[in-house]
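We examine the record.
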Amino acid sequence: MDFPEELKYSKEHVWVRIEGERAVIGITDYAQTELGNITSVELPEPGDELEQDDSFGSVEARKTVAELYAPLSGTVLEVNSELGNAPEFVNDDPYDAGWLVVIEVADSEESNLLMSAEHYEDYVAVAED
């Protein structure tokens, strides 16, 4: 399982790549493995406001639907429109082609509540026990 060091992670298995005032958001390798083959992704629209820890969409796999929870508050700038035709990108490449949204971060201090790769790896190890 992959835990890129440059990312931050939420307890809801969402990763964040901070890029200045923007953040790219997706689900973790662990999450996509647990869900199985992803068949569709429901995402917000550009311009939508996200509040930290509130639902902003969902990921559907063959046997389940998982809510997506915002790791940070902000305004949606972009959504990965490729996922409409190819939701499997989330399974195949969760940290690159499978990204979900880009937001303009409202409060950079919120990122201090997220986990480092090392802490997230420990977190999922406990979840698997």
User: Anything to note?
Assistant: Helices lie at 29-35, 89-92, 117-128. The beta strands are 8-9, 14-19, 22-27, 38-42, 49-50, 55-61, 65-69, 74-79, 101-105. The mean pLDDT is 96. The chain has one domain: 8-128.
